[in-house]
Amino acid sequence: MDSNKLLKMSDMCITDEPSACTAFCPVHVDLRSFMEEIENGDFKKAYKVMSKKIPFPRLIGKICDHPCEEVCVRENIGGSISIGDLEKLTVDLGFVSKRKGFSIPKNDKRVAIVGGGLSGIVAANSLDNKGYNVTIYECTEKIGGRIWTHQGKDLTGESIKIGLNEFKNRNIEINYNTKVDKVQLRNISEQFDAVYLGTGIWDENLEINHETHQIGKSSVFVGGRLFNQNDSVIYSVSSAMSSAISMDRYIQKISITVAREKEGTYMTPLVINTDTIEFQGKVERKGDKYTREEAVEEAKRCLKCQCLNCVKICSHLKKYNRVPKKYIREINHNETIVLGNHYANKIINSCTLCGLCKEVCPSCIDMKEIIQETRQSMVERGRMPISAHDFALKDMEFSNSKYFHMVKNQPGYNEVKYVFYPGCQLSASQPEYIEKTYKYLISNIKRGVGIFLGCCGAPADWSGRQDLMKLNVENIRDKWKAMKKPIFILACSSCCSVFEKYMPEIKYISLWEVMDKRGIPIKNKISKKHVLNIHDACTTRHNNRIHNSIRHIVSDLGYTVEELKYSREKTKCCGYGGLVYFANREQSDEFVNDRIQESSEDYLVYCAMCKDLFVSKGKKTYHILDLIYSDNIEKVSLKKAPTLSERHKNRILLKINLLKNIWNEEVDTPNVIYNLNLIISNDVKESMNDRFILLEDVEKVIYNAEKNNEKFINTKNSHYLARLRIGNVTHWVEYEKKDEGLVVHSVYTHRMEIVEE
């Protein structure tokens, strides 16, 4: 996948953007971390968070006018967090003496600070930290300026002296009782490389009316109250720090303006959805200030604003702890590796490609598109592990083989207006409904309905196999043209998605729209109340026609529908999509469990795989056709899904039964089933299913072993061990001959090829 495209997409992710309060804070204190430390009761760490951004935190932390509270997301759902009060308490409870570190070597550059007030000492502090030789000119006998106006309110005289001592102990020259006028300013500017004017008072005689002004050989940088109309403490601090950066850049002869858009106050692009956030009022103080316990409770009200919309609703992103920004950069790294381990392959193959992340993303980042393109790129460059999707692709191949594939016009019609395309998974899971549905269609539609058995190609699409997808689409398109371009009636959600994506010229209508419009068999209409939650298939995310038709049918049958929190365009995946079921079973199970835990009511689905996976975890689930055709509604809701081997057999028998019952054609059972008398325990069958081993392949191995005598014998227990390479996989079967048949003891596979010389 194109690296530039990937990186542009990663830059769209706002997860790393600061919270509203941090962005609006003129010095950008990490208030999310600050609140987390207080919530944990660790005021010392909270103080450290403050001191990373706030100079002289013992002083400014007490007198900050906290504009951050104005933009707190909590404002309308309980009131803004009391950030100012929490900062004051943190100074009291969390102050830690700053460890004496290594002094930065001084350079040969000199800067002057005119005015030793709040703004001046902040600028001086910043420039001293950068290694400049700093000289302050203060018109009074003490530094600190307006900090002293808070004496007796938030600060004591003693605490101010202690707070300023740290500054006085620096190697900074301070000239007290030195008033600087226009002439003196010009003289100073001739002696220094840059001058900061932080007098805090407008002096028209200085003729300074811009942030930067050239006087003599150096530039004068203006800060303090001159550019702080609100007389704000924290804005003065920010202005001084910003000016110090400008002075540093000026002296180093680099751009003063480049990459400084987010200095000072700005509005964050971070978006927080407050619709589901509960009202929670401020913690009331019992005294003049918060106690430790009250402060902890107030900090708990903080939402710790961060965009994790996609992570919160996606089992995949949650499992791997990935936000799009990090995930996309990982994909980019994985794509650009020439030699070495492509460690992100498993993660990339563990996404269901459901598209929910885009629906909840404020930036509309489409991880589905990114990961699907990545899989295609991996396949094209030979970096997709064959094992990840091998079974699903072989299953698709089987569905499009002579054992299942079939295209027929309705008996008595040379040409049909419609063709029923049930799909491969419904035909494998619930074949008994296909014939009933086809009979329903030909009895309700007068212009003829043909039938088309096969696989739409979704496995090829999901696995990135565009070569196979192209062949599959061409095959469907050719058959469609040969039938004079009928309208497809689709019963499978994935088929609808594939037809829309790859064959937009083929008109289709869902089976559910047909039933909604033409009426349904009503023999199963219930009389007592039965609540159902509808799980919408993720492949129909934006198909409102299907969503509405399903709900109409369910209501017509007498059921009460209660919507899940995540439904329609925001539905979740069942865990089968994107072939995750085959590539990462553990991840698939997490998707299943996440979805079924959303409600205690019975589920209604219209995708066969959704039902099979939900039922596998004990969730009572109905397929829409269960409600219409089943004779035992209660029992069918927990009907266990057929094994992978049984799914193949079901497709074969469905084709045979349709030909016999609809077209009166007798067909022999194909020799894909060898009809060996195998005795297989339930444990072995379950192991085969978990390892994607088909009964027909086990029969092939034993048939070959018996016919060609290609087997080993264990003389201790008389067990035979046989092997056979089928496609890319070598199958091993341990079996024993008994009077009642061939007892299979174990089956396993690997991709190592045994070569005999």
UniProtKB/TrEMBL annotation:
Keywords recorded for this protein, A-Z: 4Fe-4S, Iron, Iron-sulfur, Metal-binding, Oxidoreductase
GO cellular component: plasma membrane
Domain 4Fe-4S ferredoxin-type: 340-370
Name used for this protein in its record: Glutamate synthase [NADPH] small chain
EC numbers: 1.4.1.13
GO MF annotations in UniProt: 4 iron, 4 sulfur cluster binding; glutamate synthase (NADPH) activity; metal ion binding
A Pfam family recorded for this sequence: CCG
Enzyme class: oxidoreductase
Keyword Protein transport: no
PANTHER family linked to this entry: IRON-SULFUR-BINDING OXIDOREDUCTASE FADF-RELATED, IRON-SULFUR-BINDING OXIDOREDUCTASE FADF-RELATED-RELATED
InterPro entries for the chain: 4Fe4S_Fe-S-bd, 4Fe4S_Fe_S_CS, Amino_oxidase, Cys_rich_dom, DPD_II, FAD/NAD-bd_sf, HdrC_iron-sulfur_subunit, Helical_ferredxn
NCBIfam families referenced in this protein's UniProt entry, alphabetically: diclust_near_Sec
